[in-house]
Design goal:
With 225 residues, the chain is mainly alpha-helical. The protein has one domain. 81% of the residues lie in helices and 0% in strands. The chain is built from 11 helices and no strands. It is elongated. The relative contact order is 0.14.
Amino acid sequence: MNDFLLWAIETVQSVDPVLRTIIAGVAIMLETSILIGLVVPGDTVVLVAGMGVTDVWQGVVLGAVVVIGALAGESIGFWLGRWIGPHIRHSRVGRWIGEEHWARSERYLRRRGGIAIFLSRFLPVLHSLVPLTVGMSGFAYRRFLAWTLPACVLWSGIYVSVASLVAGSYKELADKVHYAGYLFVGAIVLFLVAVFVVKKVISRREERHMRENGDVVVDDRAEQA
């Protein structure tokens, strides 16, 4: 396993840092833009790109580009919502998403305001619908950016830091500890489980808040479909 993981990490690191960074930025832009985030695994691409980081400055640049990509994607969603939001909502793709999710996004924004924008970056489905919903709501773009920017910075910082630290630590341990590969895989799995749990906790708390305010909540199983 050690040989395979070293090969995988070195392969990622062998990719030109500029190209690697651009790919990550474009992937997260697609992941956060209009509904594409439901099918594009931008977070996975960022994790892989983060494993290729070999120094602090590469990490800083990658993190900054990921933030810019996320903001660009969410801005696309916002302005499309402002210009043609209702058309998208009633299109074939909008109907595939489900009217209940659109309605939930509207209620969520109405109840929580800017906090809904911040937290939606960490929630399934809503992270793609909220920018569109905000655009349709008449919410000021400047105010939208004020809430989504810190969420994007936090998200980017966590993913890039964890990926680069885990990959760097593994390369140091690979020649000294024969089970270093299992530690590497375990660390990545632990991180993904932690992300899943945090998303679940946030989602549950927001659902409880909505119930307490008399809103109808979509079942998690339907949300993940």
